[in-house]
Amino acid sequence: MSTAGTIQASRIRKSFGPKTVLKDVDLEVASGEICCIIGPSGSGKSTLLRCINGLETVDSGVLKVNGEDFGYYETDHAYHALPPKKLAQQRTRVGMVFQQFNLFPNMTARENVMSGPVLVKRADKKESAKRAQELLTSVGLGQFGDRYPAELSGGQQQRVAIARSLAMDPDIILFDEPTSALDPEKVGEVLNVMQDLAKRGMTMVVVTHEMGFAREVSDSLIFMDDGVVVERGDAREILSNPKEPRTQAFLKQVL
Amino acid sequence: MKQATLDRSRQTVDGMDPALKPRLKRRSTFEYVAWAVSILVGAGMLYSVATNPNFKWGTVAKYFTAESILRGLMLTIFLTIASMALGTLLGLLLAIMRASSVKPIAIAAGAYITLFRGTPVLVQLIFWFNISALYPNLSIGIPFTDIGTAIDTNALMGPITAALVGLTLNEAAYMAEIVRGGFSAVGKGQIEAADSLGMSGAMKMRKVIIPQAMPSIIPATGNQVIGMFKETSLVSVLGVAELLQSAQLIYARTYETIPLLIVASLWYLVMTLVLSYPQSKLEQKYSHTSVRIPRKSKKVTLTAPEGIAR
Ligand SMILES: Nc1ncnc2c1ncn2[C@@H]1O[C@H](COP(=O)(O)OP(=O)(O)OP(=O)(O)O)[C@@H](O)[C@H]1O
Ligand SMILES: [Mg+2]
Known about the structure:
The structure holds two protein chains of two kinds.
Chain A: E1 7-16, E2 19-29, E3 34-38, H1 45-52, E4 60-65, E5 68-69, E6 72-74, E7 79-81, H2 84-91, E8 94-97, H3 109-120, H4 125-138, H5 154-166, E9 172-176, H6 184-199, E10 203-207, H7 211-217, E11 220-225, E12 228-234, H8 235-240, H9 245-254
Parallel strand pairs in A: 3-10, 3-11, 8-9, 9-10
Antiparallel strand pairs in A: 1-2, 1-4, 4-5, 6-7, 11-12
Helix pairs in contact in A: 3-4, 3-5, 4-5, 5-6
Chain B: H1 2-14, H2 29-51, H3 57-64, H4 67-98, H5 103-117, H6 121-129, E1 137-141, E2 148-152, H7 153-156, H8 159-184, H9 188-196, H10 201-231, H11 243-254, H12 257-287
Antiparallel strand pairs in B: 1-2
Helix pairs in contact in B: 3-12, 4-5, 4-8, 4-10, 4-11, 5-8, 6-8, 8-10, 10-12, 11-12
The structure holds adenosine-5'-triphosphate (ATP) and magnesium ion.
Adenosine-5'-triphosphate binds next to helix 1 of chain A.
């Protein structure tokens, strides 16, 4: 399928009560592309990401993930919400990594990684445990499978969270400020894992404040402010030569 | 080097190393007075209780292990266990219904909880006992057809059944609130993580929400058990021969009211103390961790202090 791992969003609108958080946002991500989203606090970055895997529903606009309308099916006059089972099925193809890790504290690292395949896909337990071990090893945590999240550092927890997403074999992984809750010395270990993923051709949308990561790893970059995409294009190009005054002002602050 | 000389000089002045001197707790005058008063009052009460012949301690001792009292105690224990077990299950169901995104189900559960928490248990017990006045016949069958059978409600709703129904339905409402409190202690991020993996609602409840809510639900449930043990005394009004009613039946004959009330109270006290021990253990176990206690002890690694500032 050529549409796997793609995102097309056009004129997405989303309001919380009277506050419009996304104002006609467009987003185009190709398969295997790494897209970073930057912007000031409250500009709607998280909301956009959360719409892409259905944690929020969009009010209007077209949102296609993996080539399918996400969370809805289209008829002549409306978009109808999909039944929960269908939505859950679509979600299994989109991984999400949260700022606060959100590992299940009642499960060990291995059980966390296995949770998706075993509980959702009803995969074989033994096989899933083996796969979980491989994934934990690939994020450098082969020894830590039996630990509970409370016994792991933030950086380790976030790597387990990434492994948990990977265990579902998603076509896309969304990262919402994956390193913002980490001690500075732990940021590198998580970014390295993400860089590995990028090399292996995973489609990734990353909300981040790590401009170094954006510059080195990202293909495209989006700068959002106040619910609008102000500037988009090649990551290195924007970071070194921002065209819009608002982008220039923001980059001057963070760099 | 400098430290050592300093210490030695101090030692010679005071005669005792200041670092080794004990630190004494301050006791206020109020504390001494409080001790004196409470010892006096306590001794006075004990003396009066022990010497007042109207307490009839001999009678208390005689009936403490009387067969009808012990049978009453057994029934009290049975009612406590049965109504707590059923009430907890129903309460869990109500809490899940209450959290449902299907509005009518959530509203129905909310209405149930409001109704059963908003009226006295005693009234509810008497109500269930007299339900046959409302529905003389209970018919089981398919609505709007004549298939089915009718049962005489009066025969079905004996005192013990009414007691069990009343206590269970009431307890369910309280347990529902406890479970709901436990649910709301589970972070939003946990639910989002489960959602993003594509977990179904039931799976999310079973594997993510309920396990994490347990630490706050279990100690609260223990408290309910202790409360329920004493609450069962209310069903004596229905003529159920539980602990209190068994005592009442005896003193109705012998007029030894106070001694028999003491017998019942002592049993309630003993059972409460017996239940308090596991309860305090449960509370300890679940008080500090909001999550399950890891099986293995935490391995602490000390990092060099000269890390980068946060
Ligand atoms: N569930 C919600 N209900 C009401 N308002 C919300 C909700 N979620 C987000 N908002 C509002 O939407 C706006 C955008 O929020 P969003 O979290 O998308 O910003 P962000 O760009 O991710 O910011 P940050 O960098 O601080 O994470 C904010 O003003 C926020 O207060
Ligand atoms: Mg955000």
